[in-house]
UniProtKB/TrEMBL annotation, chain A:
UniProt-recorded name of the protein: Unannotated protein
Keyword set includes tRNA processing: no
InterPro entries: AAA+_ATPase (IPR003593), ABC_carbohydrate_import_ATPase (IPR050107), ABC_transporter-like_ATP-bd (IPR003439), P-loop_NTPase (IPR027417)
SUPFAM superfamilies according to UniProt: P-loop containing nucleoside triphosphate hydrolases
GO terms for cellular component: plasma membrane
Alphabetized UniProt keyword annotations: ATP-binding, Cell membrane, Membrane, Nucleotide-binding, Repeat, Sugar transport, Translocase, Transport
Pfam families xrefs: ABC_tran
Highest classification ranks of the organism: unclassified sequences, metagenomes, ecological metagenomes
Organism of origin: freshwater metagenome
From TrEMBL, chain B:
Transmembrane segments: 12-31, 51-78, 90-113, 119-143, 164-183, 214-233, 245-272, 292-313
Cell compartments where the protein resides: Cell membrane
Membrane topology reported for the UniProt record: Multi-pass membrane protein
GO cellular component, one term: plasma membrane
Predominant location: membrane
Protein name: Unannotated protein
Originating species: freshwater metagenome
From TrEMBL, chain C:
Sample GO molecular function, one term: transmembrane transporter activity
Protein name as it appears in the record: Unannotated protein
KW Transmembrane helix (keyword) present: yes
Pfam families given in the database record: BPD_transp_2 (PF02653)
Chief subcellular location: membrane
Length: 501, 327, 332
């Protein structure tokens, strides 16, 4: 058992490259027992690569990693576990068919003679849950557990393996406010037990509420490593992005026209209730709120990917058939989904084939696709959005994240939509491309399209939107105009459900 | 850049299969007297008729990430129905229509089970494999029907005029052009590939995945019915165990032709090359007077090679790339 | 009835038991011979092979894989054992099991290397080996058949003995295997690993389970059991040709699925699988007892499999819906 303040983990000038791409160009990190250490950085800064090296999924190419004085043996998850490192992923991957006790002890079940001693396993699991301050029945199946409880099971597992270093990858991203509070209690308990907790988060308020140390990464290198008292929010943000926030949002004013989208009392019992709002021509309306507050599900229901239980959706004053993306596309709705790799693109297919996917009606004669027109269309949108690729038929997988996102935008803008829904349009792309995407969205509004934007990045919401609808746990909390909205009242509404401070 | 490798691999796979086909032809004509004689070439074409016809449709299914193992049973059932209804007094044109309708219905049922009821296509079509052949068995028992109008048995057996081109070949070519264009030049084909690459992304792109898959299953059933008709006339026999195990030949031919078992990748001409390869090997074995029983083994080995080879080549290339990176 | 179908540990076995009794009762009512001592013994010895094989593939299916080559292995093993006995008249039943089991292990190794080693889709791989092994029987048998005269008397005697005139030895042996496998799956680390691997394959890699070793050994086990089942085949039928047990893999898979091993892995027990096998045989036996033509047997096997998969799917979607409802309740 480590004493408080012992140096548990030290990484020096760690490097990692994947083929030609450099993921880590020299990161350092030192973490002590009895400390909560936040690891910050934009997406792509190299945080997950670092976690994966410690988890034994990847092997670093250069630099030094020591654990409590001895060299880190890398290369297999098992080796990492043996060295006292445990990783809690954002979406825990439990064995849903197995009991909680078994999930805690999978691969290391306590034995009596040659047989597994289930009573003992259940007793031990129950004890661990109690230590973490959470009452869970060790006999129940993991299927159906909330994400927050699944994380608790993962943490209990880590403790049962005597892990000293507990890595958490965005543990709060999918949790409700009360669940976050509970997780923080668990983290404090871990700190009190002299464990080292390293956690990655994008929610800076939480970071400042709980951590002792903050390490900021940018472009695969460590930018700063400070005690919490030595830094503040503004500094951290600057270190993360490396440029001033104000440059990012080129929003211009456009005339606002007739109503395009009317959503009335839309309810999908599992995700959201009684949601009503409108979006007009030339207007950008943002759905703000935490991840999991039902925003993406609303977008999916409007576009017809999912169905809904009650309420109605009208486009240009005409009711829209539910649960039919084809009907939605017919009335010129476009949805740029939140997950471009899974939902937005066909990763192994060429850029041209991705861009033409929704525009066949314009490329097809009587039966056949006109390949010349397809090439022309791709070139047109390459120029409009300055997408960078070597050859039209290059699989989009080879493009950078920013160019991939532009490709998704291009294929939907190519359909010339009346209503453009963008879900997390700038997630995981570099700062320069972010600004370009913002300009494109602004331009679309300028052309008279109605834009519904979902974003978890508050500055983006405040910078881009004409009106902001704040969601919390599936309910519409408040609607703010551009003038009324401030960082504080949007956060307050999203996290507490109160309309103002 | 594993993706880059994958694509290069796919292209080199297509070339490799052509080269392999060539090698088989050279070896076969060296080791046998009349492999490239007009009669034998005609035989190769003619023997590959059913595999080719079912392959044209099956390639869509595999690309869309599904599979149908019951096609040979559908062939048998439609053959049985053709024989049964003709023997029971139906005019031949009606019997042919019935056989086609039976095939189409079977395909639709498979599609319905897979898409509407959400059952895994591998497992369900194994059940359907037993079911359809079982029904053929139930209808015909051990009977065989081999009295068919001469015009139609000639169609199955004869060549065009004095050439070596089987009469069935033009039919196959027409189907081939139709399905080739459908796969590579139409939105329907593009959507098929899209579904195989990412079913979720396809839904977000407005593809009606359920309907699309049902259509593919249905025309796969139809083509299996057509294959059943040609099989019946080619051997002028309708019996319950017609075409046993043919589904494996079709699948191996598709995989040999570079269609990915995981979906999303494949070309029509690759499939044609794959079918030609499989049937050339078969013909070679026949000419060498190798025991017919060996063919079951060769079929199985071909299938194993066709799934294992891409993985092995991929592993080998990756190992080579890592070695190159290290040095 | 609805509460019977809840997906609880024992619920599945209990509800299967009820269906089984129901099926036996109805058939017995229509054809009383079905429930006599003879009828029962017949049913149980017919079930023995399918039950044995279903137990054999249980670990594989729990790991979300499949083995379709088993029926071919049974055929090959039965023919090979008969052939060896014909050539070595001094053979005893022990040696028969050794020969059959060894052949099965060889085939299991082949499957295991391809599925566990190369991580190829198990369905396609074992479909391939199904044909290769069956082709192997065709080739080596060269259309030679064997009858009771060529087989060791000690072996045939085991097949025809029954405890209390009701419980045939082969079925008893299947029950013994069931008990061992049930214990193994519940109380050993290797057994639990099977469930974990099938429940969430990527996570199994992540927590460092020995996925290759477990999968590989499971295929060897399945092959071994199939080889043993080949000897059981001889005990029951006392004759063999190259088409022995052709196509019966479907009955086995159907028994396993009906017995509660979902095709998505992670669930199922050895006891459930044996009940599933009994149910499949009862239905087939019942149809025969009710006078349905033997030609329809394959069709019924296929239909049974489809129905079993569908029922499994319904049960799964039912528990999904229950979870969703629970989630909605938590939201309100």
């Amino acid at each position: 058992m480590a004493n408080k303040g012992d140096l548990l983990l030290e990484m020096k000038d760690v490097k990692k490259r994947f083929g030609g791409a450099v993921a880590l160009r020299g990161t350092s990190l030192s973490v002590r027992a009895g400390e909560i250490h936040a690891l910050l950085g934009e997406n792509g800064a190299g945080k997950s690569t670092m976690l994966k090296i410690l988890a034994g999924v990847h092997v670093h190419d250069g630099g030094e990693i020591t654990l409590g004085g001895s060299a880190f043996i890398s290369g297999s998850p098992q080796a990492s576990i043996d060295q006292g490192i445990a990783v809690i992923y954002q979406e825990p991957s439990l064995f849903l068919d197995l009991s909680l006790a078994e999930n805690v002890f999978v691969g290391r079940q306590p034995k009596k003679g040659i047989a597994i001693d289930w009573k003992e396993a259940e007793a031990q699991a129950s004890k661990l849950f109690k230590e973490l301050g959470v009452e869970l029945d060790p006999k129940r199946q993991a299927r159906g557990l909330s994400i927050a409880d699944q994380q608790v099971v993962e943490i209990a597992k880590a403790l049962s393996m005597n892990a000293n270093i507990i890595l958490m990858d965005e543990p709060t991203a999918a949790l409700s406010a009360s669940e976050v509070e509970r997780l923080m209690t668990v983290m404090r308990n871990l700190r009190a037990a002299n464990k080292a907790v390293i956690f990655v988060s994008h929610r800076l308020d939480e970071v400042f509420a709980i951590s002792d140390h903050i390490t900021v990464m940018r472009d695969g290198a460590t930018v700063s490593e400070k005690k919490i008292a030595q830094t503040d929010l503004q500094t951290v943000i600057k270190e993360m992005v490396g440029r001033e926030l104000t440059e990012l949002f080129p929003k211009t004013d456009h005339p606002i026209g007739d109503v395009v989208l009317e959503v009335e009392n839309l309810t999908n019992a599992a995700y959201f209730r009684n949601v009503s709002f409108t979006v007009r021509k030339g207007e950008i309306v943002a759905l703000a709120g935490l991840v999991g507050s039902g925003r993406s599900e609303i977008a999916r229901s409007i576009f017809g990917i999912d169905s809904y239980d009650e309420g109605s959706v009208k486009i240009n004053h005409k009711p829209l058939k539910k649960n039919s993306p084809i009907a939605a596309m017919d009335v010129k709705i476009a949805l740029v989904p939140e997950d471009r790799r899974q939902q937005g693109l066909f990763m192994v297919a060429g850029v041209n084939r991705n861009i033409s996917m929704e525009s066949f009606s314009r490329l097809t004669g009587r039966f056949f696709i006109n390949f010349k027109k397809e090439r022309a269309l791709t070139n047109e949108w390459r120029e409009n959005l300055s997408i960078k690729y070597a050859d039209q038929s290059d699989p989009v997988d080879r493009l950078s994240g920013g160019n991939q996102q532009k490709t998704v935008l291009a294929k939907w803008l190519a359909t010339n939509p009346d209503l453009l829904i963008v879900d997390e349009p700038t997630r995981g792309i570099d700062v320069g491309t972010k600004a370009e995407v913002h300009r494109l969205i602004d331009k679309a509004a300028g052309e008279g399209k109605a834009v519904l934007m979902i974003s978890s990045e508050l500055p983006e919401v405040l910078g881009m939107a004409d009106r902001i609808i704040v969601m919390r746990e599936g309910r519409q909390v408040t609607e703010l105009s551009r003038k009324e909205a401030t960082q504080e009242n949007v956060i307050a509404a999203a996290t507490t459900g109160k309309k103002g401070i | 850049m594993p993706e880059k490798n994958k694509f290069k691999l796919r292209k080199s796979w297509d070339t490799a299969i052509l080269a392999l086909l060539f090698v088989v032809w050279v070896l076969a004509s060296m080791t046998t007297d009349n492999f490239l004689s007009s009669i034998n070439v005609s035989q190769i074409f003619s023997n590959s008729s059913e595999i080719m016809i079912m392959g044209f449709a099956m390639v869509f299914l595999i690309i869309a990430g599904e599979i149908d193992l019951s096609i040979a049973s559908i062939l048998a059932l439609s053959s049985a129905m053709l024989g049964y209804s003709y023997a029971h007094g139906a005019p031949i044109w009606l019997a042919i229509l019935i056989a086609m309708a039976v095939g189409t219905t079977c395909g639709f049922i498979n599609g319905f089970l897979v898409t509407k009821l959400g059952l895994g296509s591998l497992a369900v079509t194994i059940g359907a494999l037993a079911l359809y052949r079982g029904i053929a068995n139930g209808i015909l028992g051990t009977n065989t029907i081999n009295e068919f109008p001469e015009f139609w048995t000639n169609f199955g057996f004869d060549t065009i005029g004095k050439s070596f081109i089987p009469q069935t070949l033009p039919v196959i070519i027409v189907f081939g052009i139709f399905f080739g264009l459908l796969l590579h030049n139409t939105p329907f084909g593009r959507r098929t590939l899209a579904i195989g690459q990412s079913q979720m992304a396809a839904r977000f792109a407005g593809v009606n995945v359920v309907r699309h898959k049902i259509i593919i299953f249905t025309f796969t059933g139809f083509m299996s019915g057509v294959a059943g008709i040609i099989y019946t006339f080619r051997f002028s026999t309708a019996q319950a165990d017609n075409g046993v195990g043919l589904e494996l030949l079709v699948i191996s031919a598709c995989l040999l032709g570079g269609v990915s078992i995981f979906g999303g990748i494949g070309t029509m001409w690759g499939v044609v090359a794959g079918v030609m390869l499989a049937s050339s090997v078969e013909s070679w074995l026949t000419l060498r007077e190798i025991n017919a029983q060996w063919r079951t083994i060769v079929t199985g080995i071909l299938l194993l090679i066709s799934v294992a080879a891409p993985v092995l080549v991929d592993k080998w290339k990756r190992a080579k790339a890592t070695a190159a990176n290290k040095s | 009835m609805a509460s019977l179908f809840k997906r609880k540990a024992l619920g599945r076995e209990a509800s299967l038991g009820v269906i089984l009794i129901f099926a036996v009762a109805v058939t017995g009512f229509i054809n009383p011979r079905f429930v006599t001592g003879d009828g029962t013994r017949d049913l149980l010895s017919a079930t023995a092979i399918v039950a044995l094989l279903a137990i054999g593939i249980a670990p594989i299916m729990i790991m979300r894989h499949i083995d379709l080559s088993i029926a071919s292995t049974v055929g090959f093993s039965a023919w090979l054992v008969a052939d060896t006995c014909a050539k070595n008249p001094s053979f005893t039943w022990v040696q028969c099991f050794l020969v059959g089991g060894s052949l099965g292990i060889v085939i299991g190794i082949l499957n295991g290397l391809l599925v566990a080693g190369l991580r190829l889709p198990s369905l396609v791989v074992t479909l391939g080996t199904l044909y290769i092994v069956r082709g192997g029987v065709y080739v080596v048998s060269n259309s030679v058949d064997y009858n009771a005269q060529e087989m060791p008397k000690s072996l045939l005697k085991i097949g025809s003995t029954a405890f209390f005139g009701l419980l045939p030895v082969p079925f008893f042996l299947a029950l013994v295997l069931m008990a061992i496998v049930a214990w193994f799956l519940k109380y050993t680390k290797a057994g639990r690993d099977c469930y974990a691997i099938g429940s969430n394959p990527p996570a199994a890699d992540l927590v460092g389970l020995k996925v290759f070793r477990r999968t590989f050994l499971a295929y060897i086990f399945s092959g071994f059991i199939a080889g043993i089942a080949g000897v059981f085949y001889l005990m029951r039928f006392a004759q063999v040709d190259s088409t022995a047990f052709y196509g019966q893999e479907l009955a086995v898979v159907a028994a396993a699925v009906i017995g509660g091993i979902g095709l998505l892995g992670g669930a199922g027990t050895a006891v459930g699988v044996v009940i599933g096998a009994l149910l499949v045989q009862t239905i087939q036996g019942a149809l025969a007892a009710l006078g349905v033509d033997a030609f329809w047997k394959a069709a019924i096997n296929g239909l049974l499999l489809i129905v079993a998969i569908y029922a499994d799917r319904i049960l799964a979607s039912r528990s999904e819906k229950a979870l969703l409802a629970q989630r909605i309740k938590e939201r309100v």
